[in-house]
Amino acid sequence: MQGLNGTPFQPEMFQLTGIPGMHTGQAWVVLVFCILCLVSILGNLSILALVVREPALHQPMYYFLSMLSLNDLGVSFSTLPTVLATFCFNYRRVGFDACLVQMFFIHTFSFMESGILLAMSFDRFVAICDPLRYAAVLTNSRILTTGLGILTKSFTTLFPFPFLVKRLPFCKGNVLHHSYCLHPDLMKVACGDTRVNNIYGLFVVIFTYGVDSVFILLSYALILRAVMAIASQEQRLKALNTCMSHICAVLAFYVPIIAVSMIHRFWKNAPSVVHVMMSNVYLFVPPMLNPIIYSVKTKEIRKGILKLFHKS
């Protein structure tokens, strides 16, 4: 896209894209997205309400779960406006600055989720490997400090992104490949020298997803070693069962990320619908699955939800 003098410039609006090849089935697409968003929002709000209302859930594990639910709500509300506008009202335009704001919040909440999952793995490590010091190590002040640290880390590492994008001209059109704004998507339509954006983006991914995933694996290696040292098989299974919800949440978050990376790296000629669908899975499925996983696998959460429905 070029200005009157032939020089590239920044567009006032970006054109968002739905799911390629599914124009005839838009009603089904709208239904699926509405169900995903509704389950995600109601599920995570229910988790937050339970932890606040039930004194039995005022424990470190459930405080971290509240952080995860709050973060998942942030992901849902960051993507929801443009997704609903695209699929429900066929309004596919978003302002340049609004796009940068949405991009910042989507990536910030995504990186925060990785940090929260790491904190939850440390919680499980202390609970199994050093249970006598669990309450002394994970005090309320340390949990609050951990949450603020995760927020600060994500905010500061992502803060330069909007400014790095804003300095670039856009000469390859203004059509994005999703119904929301992502940094890699904006780089596809930007021109000029994008090396700083790409290098810094790679650094942020390694510094967050890479480091967090390594420490999560290390935590579970130490947990597994401690569990194998338990003499009773029943106690070993009981100890591992306390980690199952978190393991499922980690898989729900990291498997789509790995799948998206593998497709972009090894299947570059894949149909565009594959890339779009995997990106949607990466953003929409974990916030929906997390409350379901913890409701099914965690007895205290399940009992609280049943009590809530029973009162209703």
From TrEMBL:
The keyword Secreted does not apply. SMART domains: 7TM_GPCR_Srsx. The keyword Nucleotide-binding does not apply. CDD domains: 7tmA_OR51-like. GO terms for cellular component: plasma membrane. Keywords: Cell membrane, G-protein coupled receptor, Membrane, Olfaction, Receptor, Sensory transduction, Transducer, Transmembrane, Transmembrane helix. InterPro entries: GPCR_Rhodpsn, GPCR_Rhodpsn_7TM, Olfact_rcpt, OR51/52/56-like. Gene3D superfamilies: Rhodopsin 7-helix transmembrane proteins. It is found in: Cell membrane; Membrane. GO terms for molecular function: G protein-coupled receptor activity; olfactory receptor activity. The chain crosses the membrane at residues 27-52, 73-92, 104-122, 143-165, 199-223, 244-267, 273-293. Pfam families: 7tm_4 (PF13853). Residues 43-294 form the G-protein coupled receptors family 1 profile domain. GO terms for biological process: cellular response to lipid. It is a multi-pass membrane protein. Belongs to the G-protein coupled receptor 1 family. This is Olfactory receptor. It comes from Octodon degus. The lineage of its organism: Eukaryota, Metazoa, Chordata, Craniata, Vertebrata.
